[in-house]
Structure formats: structure tokens, C-alpha cells
Amino acid sequence: MSKQKYPQATKNVNAEGEAKKGKINGYHSEKLHAKWDKKRSEAKARQRHYEGLTVQARIALAKSRPGESKQELARLEKLLTAKSTVKV
């Protein structure tokens, strides 16, 4: 058997080949999954709110943020002009 300078990490498996239960990296997997699910649901709520805004409201929101938001404003202006030509 060769001596490795940096041995490979062992998998989280017990002697029977079943997944170990308990902490991984200091956290229980249930807590990690709950945290990810919470973040995912919060992001979906933010996205639903943003999609519910009008284009003018999105432009006002982008202008109220710090920075110039050039790309976002250009995209929204393009969307606004496209909607105005369709309505005519």
C-alpha cells in the first residue's frame, strides 16, 4: 500500500454501506435542508413581488438603488418601448 501525502477523504458510510446519520460539517442535514428550503421560498416570494410590478415601477426601483444599474435600466427601457409599440 502506498503512502499518500494527502489521503482521500472517506465517504460518510458505515461498515454496512449505509449512509451515516448525524452531523456533516458540524450541522445536521435536516437543518441544512431546512435552511436551503427557507432561502428558496424567500427568493421565490421576492421574485413574485418583482414580477408583479409594472415596468415603470421596476425602472423607479432600479433608479432608487445605489449605483447606475445601466444594464438593468437598458433592458427595462427596451421592454417598455416594446410594450408601447405593441399597444398602438
How far apart are the termini?
A: 78 Å
Extract low-pLDDT stretches.
none
Average pLDDT score: 84
* Tally of helical runs: 3
The level of helicity is: 55-70%
Strand content: under 5%
Major beta-sheet overview: 2 strands, antiparallel
The number of domains is 2
Shape: elongated
Helix and strand pattern: EEHHH
Calculate Rg over CA atoms: 25 Å
Number of strands: 2
* Strand line-up across the major sheet: 1-2
Structural class determined from secondary elements: mainly alpha
Write structural notes for this entry.
- This protein folds into two domains: 19-52; 54-88, no CATH class.
- The chain is mainly α and 88 residues long.
- Helices cover 59% and strands 5% of the residues.
- The chain has helices at 29-52, 55-64, 70-87, and strands spanning 23-24, 27-28.
- The protein has a two-stranded antiparallel ribbon with strand order 1-2.
- Helix 2 (55-64) runs antiparallel to helix 3 (70-87).
- The chain is elongated, with a radius of gyration of 25 Å.
